Amino acid sequence: MIHRTEMIVVWIVLLRTLTGETKTFTFQDCNSNLSVLEVLPGGGWDNIRNKDMGIVMNMNYSRCRTTEDRQYLIPDEVYVIPQKQTNIDIHSELIEDWQSYKDAFSNDVNAEASYLKVLNGKFSEKLEETKIHNVYDKTSTTRVQVRNVIYSVKARPDFSFDITFKKQLLEIAQCLASNQTQRALYLAEMLVLRYGTHVLTSLDAGASLVQEDQVSESFLLDNAEQKSSVTASAAVSFFSTVNIGIKGSSQTEDEMTKKYRENTTDSKIESHGGVPFYPGITLAKWQEGISNNLVAVSKFGLPLPFFITPERLPEVPETMVKEIANTLDKAINLYYAVNTHPGCLDSKSPNFNFQANVDDGSCHSANTNFTFGGVYQTCSFYLPPYGKIDFANSLCQSYFTKNPLTGDFSCPPRYTPVLLNSVNYHIPERHTDCTKDCAFFIFGCDTNCETTVYYYKIYVSSYWCAALESVPQDSGLLFGGLYSKGAVNPVTQTHACPPYFYPLRLFEDLGVCVSSDYEMGGINAVPFGGFFSCKTGNPLAGHLNTQAPGIQQYFFYRDSPTSYAMKCPLGMSQHQAFLSDGCQVMYCIQAGELFAGRLPPIQLPPFRHAPLFNFTSPEVRTLHSEGNRTWVKEPGSLVWTLVSSKNARGLTKGRSRAPSQEGPTIAISVTVTVILVALIAGVGYSVKWWRSRGFRRAEEGTLVGSHPTYGSTAVFEELEDSDT
């Protein structure tokens, strides 16, 4: 039987459909006393941070659907599978090091391997906490988990997009259609910032209790043959805290549990859903409150670009839908690339890099000490109309950097310049033109000013000097680290160079610390292994035909035309020097203890400056035909429509004539308006003149003789009264 509320909603939907009006219904429109199921798929997900993001799926409640047991309201594009039987899963495991750590609730979505799988979840709070314990407390991790699943909640495969999310996709499409690729990439990076890298398509709703203990490595080594006993001891420890009454089955197990507790350096129990955990809670008490406090205890999803399909974007040509997906894929790849920190992951190696999250084979000792030939930076400019050469030169002056070894924009003999990146900057300048308009002299002259913004284009290219052949000893510069506004120098832990070093500026604010004082500066010098970027490899790491290209090029920059490997020499690890307008610049050093104790912060998009919207770019109104039909877009609209090619030609012709007809129409309207205003003003002036003449006649004939001053005032007041 259809309920009254549902019938009302159906009629409202039908009426709005017939009138062309659409509305997203919220659960309040259902006028139901049922609770709303809060564990819903269709949300964005950051697979690097294990974090829920913005809503991607349209959460419409127009049908007022409920779960099968009629306990919860659910959206139209979600279906729920209730668990007909009550199961409590109990699991105990040993996690020997942070590299094999898997999140208790996000393991399924973290296993999705469309991007660099090893980076999934590496910036989650749980993993970072575990890494610090494992490395500095010399521990391993045990986990005991109790889980109760009530519903499996899934998104329909053909779900539609949330209107806000969809609008942002259409804005990217507009930029791509206008050939504004950089702005489209910027908008795609902003989309990743708001919605993450994946979309959650399936969730298990329920509750879970989790205990994670940090147990000393020495205890585990002593009991390497009894790992099952170790995990059993972890379970006994957990259930004694939860007060379920499980005891060891033998004296051996009791002794193992006692030793386990003695060697536990940190223990934490967390409740996810159900009744909040407190010491002494029973499992039965916790389970009673699950139905009223559901959370997601398991998550699965797919990459965001996977869902960018023609069916979900019927307003956009199919070829452009693919371009949107590719642009979004590039933005996600860059997000992964920027947060990839290759290095030595073996904590027992002298080259161990605490900040590294991907192994690059640099645990081996370095066998070469390279010479650093310095850096330099050039600048050129494009002069706009009304531009001033002196001003353009002053803009470039702040970007010029000469190599101290040559005193010029060049490298020393036997060193080769290697371009790291070239960046274009746009600096605005306002130019105001004023003219006087005296067309109707009776109103005086008007000054009309028009301000135009012109842009100076500054082209900045940054180079470093690599020794590709044998060079004299002590012929180069010492390297003392580098720093920028967003990162301190690992050598000094400040935004400064070590003693006897000075900074050379690259890009916007990168300071590269160098010194030619081998005696005094050598104390703080760091073994240097070159630079590379998203565009060029590292000559010191060898040619591509002799070495593997490295993680950066293999996963992220395969299309970069470089002859050298995008990696560091053997025994050195790479670190990000700067992010130059979406392009990573890396440097290679023998890190050692420089980065000890500090995990790298997550770097969030966007990774490039917001490009200015090119208003001079012609708006594309038609796209290539599909058979005998053509995609057409209204001016200023984000939506494309597929029409017959004949109609498309008529529409574009009509629109192309519109600007030429609009100008004369506006001119005629303005002229007629001005004439009417002039006529009205003339009539008003004549009436005023006539009244003043009549006033003077009355004045001369009656009042002036006896009361000259008072008479004029009296008559003026009478005239005012008569007007009112």
UniProtKB/TrEMBL annotation:
InterPro entries: MACPF, MPEG1. CDD domains: MPEG1_P2. This is Macrophage-expressed gene 1 protein-like. Residues 13-339 form the MACPF domain. GO terms for cellular component: phagocytic vesicle membrane. Residues 1-24 form the signal peptide. Keywords: Membrane, Signal, Transmembrane, Transmembrane helix. It comes from the Eukaryota. It holds the Pfam family MACPF. GO terms for biological process: adaptive immune response; innate immune response. The chain crosses the membrane at residues 666-687.
